[in-house]
Design brief:
Elements lengths: L1 H26 L61 H33 L3 H4 L6
Length: 134
């Protein structure tokens, strides 16, 4: 939870900094205040851009060593230990296989229902003569 709070604080701080930068840029006077509003200033040719620094060579890039983050010990609340209830053989089998048993019964029911429906619709005698459908 504390990790999430730190992330939220970082986002708020970045947002405040970006808003402060936008306010600074908005407070600066416009350089081309003499030009009429309708005219659009022409962009300078790419060769006319000022170059203050030579391009950086990849060999000049130095990587910093990784910073190790200090980990705080995790304090866990103690939960009361539950006493396991004694299980019998039928309770454990029923508890473990209850869903599978009910799913099997449901599939069997749907298959028999489909078989009876097909027998009725297409008047198939051998299906209609089964003891289940008499």
């Amino acid at each position: 939870m504390s990790k999430r709070k730190r992330e939220i604080k970082k986002r708020k701080k970045l947002l405040e900094e970006s808003q402060a930068e936008e306010n600074l840029h908005a407070a600066e006077p416009l350089e081309d205040a003499e030009q009429p509003e309708d005219s659009v200033p022409a962009e300078p040719h790419p060769d006319e851009y000022p170059t203050s620094e030579p391009p950086i060579d990849d060999s000049q890039i130095v990587s910093a060593p990784p910073v190790s983050a200090e980990k705080k010990p995790v304090v866990r609340k103690e939960t009361p230990k539950r006493q396991p209830k004694p299980t019998t053989a039928t309770d454990s089998w029923l508890g473990q296989n209850k869903e599978n048993f009910l799913l099997g019964l449901l599939i069997l029911y749907v298959l028999l229902l489909g078989l009876g429906t097909v027998g009725e619709l297409f008047e198939i005698e051998w299906i209609l003569n089964l003891p289940l459908f008499r």
